Amino acid sequence: MRSGAFKEITGITIYVEANEEDVRWDENFPGWNNDNKVVYGDNWINVKFYTESNSLLKEMVVLKHQVIRYPYYKDYCDEQYRYLWLGFDLNGDGNIDSIPATSPIDISATVIYQKEFLCVQDGHRAGAEADCLNDQICFACGIVLSEKLGHDYKAVVTPPTCTKNGYITHTCSRCADSYTDSEIVAPGHHDYKTVVTAPTCTAEGYTTHTCSRCGDTYTDSETEALGHNYKAVVTAPTCTTKGYTTHICNRCGDTYTDSITAALGHKPGAEADCQKHQTCTVCGKVLAGKLGHDYVAVVTDPTCTEKGYTTHTCSRCGDTYTDSEVEALDHDYAAVVTDPTCTEVGYTTHTCSRCGDTYTDSEVDALGHKPGAEADCLNDQDCTVCGEVLVGKLGHDYAAVVTDPTCTEKGYTTYTCSRCGDTYTDSETEALGHKPSEWIVDAEPAPGVVGSKHIECAICGEKLETAVIEALPVETEPETETSLETEAPTESDPKQEDPKGSNGCFGVVNADVFCLIILMSFASLLFMKRRKENY
Predict the structure, then answer these.
(1) With the C-alpha atoms ordered 27, 30, 31, 37, is the resulting torsion angle positive or negative?
(2) What is the pLDDT of residues 358-383, one digit of tens each?
(3) Residues 523, 406: Cα–Cα separation, whole Å
(4) Is this structure's pTM higher than 0.85?
(5) How far apart, in Å, are the Cα atoms of 337 and each of 137, 143, 348, 350, 351?
(6) How far apart are CA 290 and CA 277, in angstroms?
């Protein structure tokens, strides 16, 4: 019965065959909650009393030898009758019966009343007030108390529409009865305004033409329906329910489901204990009922102010209750004197040797602080006697100076304390780096003389690179023609044996000039090529 099987059942009576077991009170036991009742043994009977309309007035479960105390039911009135309580009917014959003091069987009795018109003793009971067509009467005896009032008509004009005539409606202010007269002739034509209704997934679009005066309407310009545009939403399975995919149209909300997956089944949580069930960690369903307590007794001796007692603690869950109290012992105080300090008064402390309870008396005024050196940026002003901080350290008062970055050096901010000079830096910014310029000519080249050039930083002017500019070619005087023809060598002139001379050229003097011309021409061509590359 304690497994939770009756958890959702309310308003019942539970009968237990054996009544020998002493059942401990349990607020979660279904016999004590949900308006239920538990009856032990077979010596009990049910006693029920009903009203004249067969509604349950009172129900009780009593022992067979227990006296039945039936309810006293007061007289009452409704709108037409007074009901006088006479007693109870046991056998259903409509007559008053005596309720037995005890009974070996279940009892069911119904209230018996005598009813009479209220107006006999208390005057007439006025019914609904008189209106245009009806008198006010006594709903107990039917006598007319006020005659009908007749109609009180008010006129409302309904103007004509395009095709229908107008009229005047006369309506009673009391009962809303109405009639019409005074017809007003209609103009006979419509003033249409158009409203376009866009197509939906399943319905065609169209244009509605409505008369602004009379509301007459017709439609045209139909367009085809759009059809559904479904988006899928997956619902995961739970312990006991299947998963599925829901397809929802993002235009009209139409929906259908598919892709059904099986339920996951329960995932058991912590095992059941004295007061808690084992439940599914996913959905919380109870899988195993709680176990109940297993108490172990521990004696707590009395103290000076507290009574002694025995504590009964459950070995499984720690639930506890106490009994077997013993009177407290009272205090046994010893005195200790505490001298005054700079800020604290002196006093005498009385402490109980058994429990440590304490109280103080015999106070002496505090001595007051003796200030040390004044506070600065890093140091408090302390009392020279007790060391307590009298004035907190002031802290640094930094002023910031920003140093901008250069091409090769980082930028930073320097903070310096205006009181003590302490300093530190932060907020570093990276060096800017050099910004190279174009080539700058320092010395133009000349014939036979090299020039120079450099690249420098456009920000700080530092030279970053230097280079040589090739010399210009040397211009030479045109030479007179020299006959290459020589006389035939003779045996007496050894220099004429070799036409090229000793230097490998055509003659000693002419050969030197010829070689120089060739070398200068080659150098000039090379210089012009390099100058073209540099510029």
Answers:
(1) positive
(2) 999 999 998 899 999 988 999 999 99
(3) 45
(4) no
(5) 97, 100, 4, 9, 11
(6) 5
